[in-house]
Design brief:
- The chain contains four helices and nine strands, in the order E-H-H-E-E-E-E-E-E-E-E-H-H.
- By secondary structure, the chain is of the alpha+beta class.
- The longest helix has 24 residues, at 167-190.
- The radius of gyration is 20 Å and the shape is elongated.
């Protein structure tokens, strides 16, 4: 799945269409929607470890006293360690994978020699959505998250302002927003990553966080 972007305007227009009305950026209602969009983006991000835009494969990382830190100067911060190798993966046949465990944001690597100062890490990089009431219409929104963000915000909004509405209607709406995310995850699975050496040691594509 290629990395594409929608715009903040696309997100607003779809959300307003689902809600059935528009809100100006200066209103308290719009500020609440922004908070819901950020929350929706976080939930989508957490739904998989293997979104294209957040997956980094076989990046050299420094080993310090037996561990790899989640942050290193000049590199993305690591949110989730996925695999660690002694040699750069996919560059030859003699690649050894390391066992590791994570504690306090550090991956403690087993099977490395005392003088090995570099390993190759496959990881999900850190992402913190930070849309605000001042976000411009042309600001980028991850395309694979956008539909879910809009549906999640609209559902949550309507749930809060229409508390006397039918529970069946809310259940149908919740099913719809979950299906939106399932559709994006199905596209990801269709790329074959879960049959590859990047992810095949894992039993599921869902993040347990």
């Amino acid at each position: 799945m290629s990395v594409k972007n929608s715009t903040f305007l696309d997100l607003k227009n779809l959300t307003f269409a689902l809600i059935g009305r528009e809100y100006l950026s200066a209103t308290a209602q719009f500020a609440r929607l922004v908070a819901l969009w950020n929350q929706g983006a976080k939930k989508a991000y957490r739904a998989s470890n293997y979104w294209d835009r957040h997956l980094v494969v076989g990046e050299p990382r420094t080993v310090v006293q037996g561990y790899v830190a989640s942050s290193e100067d000049g590199l993305d911060n690591i949110d989730t360690f996925l695999r660690i190798y002694k040699q750069q993966p996919f560059k030859g046949s003699a690649v050894q994978e390391c066992d590791f465990y994570v504690r306090n944001g550090r991956a403690y690597v087993q099977g490395t020699s005392a003088n090995q100062d570099t390993v190759y890490v496959t990881y999900k990089n850190e992402y913190t959505p930070a849309y605000t009431i001042e976000s411009g219409d042309g600001d980028e929104v991850p395309d694979e998250y956008m539909n879910y963000m809009a549906h999640y915000a609209a559902y949550t909004w309507q749930r809060s302002v229409e508390q006397n509405s039918s529970e069946n209607n809310f259940a149908l709406s919740l099913g719809l927003i979950n299906q939106v995310l399932e559709d994006e995850l199905a596209k990801l699975e269709g790329q074959g990553i879960f049959n590859s050496n990047v992810a095949r040691k894992f039993k599921t594509y869902r993040n347990s966080n």
